[in-house]
């Protein structure tokens, strides 16, 4: 499975989630809950609270907004790609006024444009700035620390919310040091779990906003979680077996070392791009330094259907490439290199693409795999 | 584990959920999704739609309300016990006017009182009647078909919503034949799964109400699900591995036969009550014919702490009894006999209770286990 | 499963054996092999060598003999029951002269008879004395330390071999302190593993005998094992995944504490016998102090078929009782209480037997379960 | 893991072996046993009997000999490599007179030499001809059908025994059609299981020889197996959980189709050799048409240590190559492509070797991976 997530779940994690479910109100559960809640802090790099939802990432997107905002609030978002667009639609559906800084889907969010936009909002009507860290539809990474600086330069009090559903635990991420107020993430990418858990990390400022935020909420309400979480419990039934897996994943990440995990993904991104360029194809992310180590989106040559190529490659080489979404549908395919991925798995993936290009008669220069191997060896 | 849920997860299901996660957008997923969606219909006994949420049961409670109601709507609920009370609080938190017919926690919902209450609402301001089928805090079962008749007798157009989180797949339940509009359920009781999935079954009338309902919703919105579900897919990332388990559970229930499953639980409930009565203790459910086959709540003799007894029994016999909740805290303990449970597991559970009563010096007549065995043999 | 073995395999062990197989010649294997080899010493209570065979217990019986004896050697065995008889037949098949002290299958080996027999062998033609520790066909335990004393009293140099296939890790066993030369055991009883591994523990005297023993051997030959075992390896491909399980089992036994394990089985044996006697049935083992804590064999009342009773009990209560073997075929049924077994499992088992007696119209006094509970509480 | 076995165990099989152990004497076991016994016949392509041992492959080697031969019997073997040599030593240890036709380890057994050797044995003192089908130490395949013809041409009555421990279920094998009398195999190669099971397939002639063969045997004795096997049972405790895995493996092989499995391995062998030759290295098997599809042994350039190269490659690219054994120790490394192996896993393996050659400064032409991809695409 080489699509950009869900990532392949390592055997250790599959084994962990297949342990017998224990009573989530019983005395033994506290250790499970506390390990998960505290362990996640080390992954988000935060001293603040991390909330765990039995829900997919879409739920954590919603949670971030309904916990901190009120109906009609203005929210600034940046169009990095398909997932930023979906988050904007969700905000609108919740009754927020979501405003987009448009983007060309070929890079991350632009701090300068954000600063300029905020500077014009002298009455501070904008209540939140929402940015996608790793845009899974394009393979571009937004410079989160720089966006923080932009907000500060504009002296704007808006909350800063970041979606790192596909970035966390693959790319460096620092909730506290980067001054993020709400971080949204999920289980099935860098954390290498099956889908079913999602997360909010919240700053003191965000927790404070929660007290006056008027959007309707119950399941997502942070206020209900804080008390039980102190002792490792949850206000409603948690997804116990996925928490077993989460705890195993946190151990695995620390055994390898987060910095090693990040370096591995950076190396794989560079090798994948070397192959793509050798083939004579174009990487969708056109902004140097913002290419993702999690996945590489590749533009299909004109006159060729990316989806037809993906189908052919799946059939002949059993390799599943990500599809182009909405604006880039059928024009792009995506190579995932996330989660529990090593050098040889990357070579195998690139070999599948190269053999697929040949099989589908897509014009290309052979030898991309060899080019990637040069980078890796 | 003998608490009233989560039930012990059978090995077959643990094995199913530990299979490798597949791409929830890929071609192989359709079969998984369709089997789950269609299989659930056979469990809810409905030809209508069943929605699957990656969420705990609390989420499905919320979903039932936000999909069909508007802010300020009046909702009639019946105080069967703790969980009915929690559902009422949730309704209030969402901005509904929830009204309780008070109960003594010793039986299910009373159709006559419901009919009388609705009859007075001549202007049909009440938009929904909400009843808990199997009240996990008391071990009482509401007569759902009779409540439907009560609503019809009152010629009242309110939607009929039923929580059978702990009843489904243990007690007979008929979404269509009983005229329920929204049924709420979850994965971790009769379906024998780990927690993390919950469900709404919706009638045509409920789906119609969804079109005009004004409560804020996004994650829970049925409207987004209907389209993708047609082909076995979901609008956002499903909890794939729990779906594997769900499909295995559906197979297991049909292999045994739903009627056999129901008969088994009925027999276990009767045997458990025989033991309790032999001990000289009182079953909390005082309404004949409404005692649950899923769990048996037992009143502690005056002057004895139910929680101290539970702690002692856990320590000495490794058996986990359910605690009394809110109004009956420390006054009641609950014996679970749900899910994948057989005669000998019931005997073992009752033996643990009887040996626990002795160890904790709770006055009782010995021989309750033998009395239960008489019923079972 | 309540037969006297294979015992129910705990989830922890099933999970361990489902880990990916590693290269048994690679560097990571050493830790697995050494943990198993050294860990077993703590279970056999020996400082000597323990040999691990990818084989069932029958193989370890053969290994004990072919490694130490020569064609035509005389061997003294004691007829404790069916398994002692099988071991004797195996010895004869290998070309040894096996001699039986006959027994009535109602107790363990008798040290006095052994001493008397050896005393007559003034020319020391008898090369080995072979005794079954826990005779699985009868539920009797031989007094191993006393047999050692008997051999010593007779001043006889024969090797002392003990089969504790079903006793090890359930009953106290001390290879070194009791002066045993070769101990034979297997994986699927007290070690709680699936079948597929078996063992020989060998004293220095036995290892010395190996050098001159003339029976044909290759697969079983200790001499080939000793070298590779020093560093945790094996001369041929080991059953790697079962070794994973073995290491987990050794951890589990030490977590509970071997003495606690032994006490638990002793208590279960006493409670089982209390039930049997209350029913008015007879325990096969008639020698006080030699009743097994691993299983209890029960004599069927005259005129009743034990096998018909067993079949009926399996059908109606899903409980699998052990059958009577050879001399006691159809006259005895056996209740297993070995391995990972707790008080409530024992009660459940006894309840199954008692309900089974009722269902099959076997005359008995009701209340045996209650009698057992008296012993346990 | 790319060593030439044990092969990586597929998740389906790991899941199968982690099911609860059932009673090997109980009624449910028959289906498990019969499926294994009959299923294996379809893999060995025989209508005769296949014996299953809870033992490693070494045990099945011994079983083949002790079941059919008598002390002092002459046996003709062919020195295809290390494993043929081990089998010969084992024969000698059992008291047989094993005679070698020497080989250079660069091809399979030579039918012409065998015919010539047998032709000289006019008194028919040679009782068996033993050949290794797929010699795991060299990557050469013996022409089994041609050896059968050679024996027939020599009009020699010797039994024909073949070791296909590493060939079965990867290379075409036809026990009946090729006139083999005893076929030896094991679980951990083409059958994709963990080690712990091994097999003998026996012709009517071999079963007949069993009746008069005088070598000492008990555990391995076919005669004890035949009866119980008729109904799916075994004379001693089988390795139940490995049988679960075996049954799953047989299903997987038939789902893919044996011919497709063979074609896949043939293709992988050809691609691996293309890479090796592109690198400018030499394939150990020098006999055209006898190169193995299971593994490829590669000669290390003079002056370079194969073992140092293997250690470096393991360290840097986490790829485990097989070592050179005895005569070719340190001069050869072996690339495994056995079992559940696909095109991209082969590319990944070859990439690991090529990057390893670079890292270890072994002179080679880059582009071997690309050459293999040409063969595969």
TrEMBL record, chains A, B, C, D:
Residues 40-309 form the Aminotransferase class V domain. It comes from the Bacteria. The keyword Repressor does not apply. It holds the Pfam family Aminotran_5. Its cofactor is pyridoxal 5'-phosphate. Keywords: Aminotransferase, Pyridoxal phosphate, Transferase. GO terms for molecular function: transaminase activity. Belongs to the class-V pyridoxal-phosphate-dependent aminotransferase family. PANTHER family: ALANINE--GLYOXYLATE AMINOTRANSFERASE, AMINOTRANSFERASE CLASS V. This is Aminotransferase, class V. The lineage of its organism: Bacteria, Pseudomonadati, Pseudomonadota, Alphaproteobacteria, Rhodobacterales.
């Amino acid at each position: 499975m080489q699509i950009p997530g869900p990532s392949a779940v390592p055997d250790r994690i599959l084994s962990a989630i297949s342990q017998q479910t224990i009573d989530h109100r019983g005395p033994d559960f506290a250790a499970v809950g506390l390990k998960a809640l505290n362990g996640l802090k080390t992954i988000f790099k935060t001293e603040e609270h991390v909330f765990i939802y039995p829900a997919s990432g879409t739920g954590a997107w919603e949670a971030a907004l309904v916990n901190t905002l009120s109906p009609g609030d203005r929210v600034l978002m940046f169009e990095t790609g398909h997932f930023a667009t979906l988050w904007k639609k969700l905000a609108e559906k919740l009754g927020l006024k979501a405003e987009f800084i448009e983007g060309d889907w070929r890079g991350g969010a632009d701090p300068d444009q954000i600063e300029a936009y905020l500077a014009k909002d002298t009455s501070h009507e904008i209540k939140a700035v929402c940015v996608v860290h790793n845009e899974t539809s394009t393979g571009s990474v937004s410079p989160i620390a720089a966006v923080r600086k932009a907000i500060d330069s504009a002296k704007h009090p808006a909350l800063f919310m970041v979606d790192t559903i596909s970035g966390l635990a693959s790319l460096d991420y620092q909730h506290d040091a980067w001054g993020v107020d709400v971080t949204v993430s999920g289980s099935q990418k860098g954390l290498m779990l099956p889908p079913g858990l999602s997360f909010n990390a919240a700053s003191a400022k965000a927790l404070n906003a929660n007290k006056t935020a008027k959007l309707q909420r119950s399941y997502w309400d942070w206020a209900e979680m804080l008390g039980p979480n102190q002792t490792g419990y949850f206000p409603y039934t948690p997804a116990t077996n996925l928490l077993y897996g989460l705890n195993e994943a946190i151990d695995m990440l620390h055994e390898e070392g987060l910095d090693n995990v990040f370096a591995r993904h950076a190396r794989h991104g560079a090798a994948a791009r070397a192959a793509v360029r050798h083939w004579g194809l174009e990487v969708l992310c056109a902004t140097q330094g913002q290419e993702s180590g999690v996945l590489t989106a590749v533009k299909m040559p004109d006159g060729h259907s990316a989806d037809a190529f993906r189908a052919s490659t799946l059939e002949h080489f059993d390799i599943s490439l990500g599809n182009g979404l909405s604006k880039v549908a059928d024009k792009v395919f995506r190579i995932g290199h996330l989660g529990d991925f090593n050098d040889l798995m990357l070579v195998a993936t690139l070999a599948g693409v190269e053999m697929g290009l040949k099989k589908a008669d897509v014009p290309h220069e052979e030898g991309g795999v060899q080019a990637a191997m040069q980078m890796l060896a």
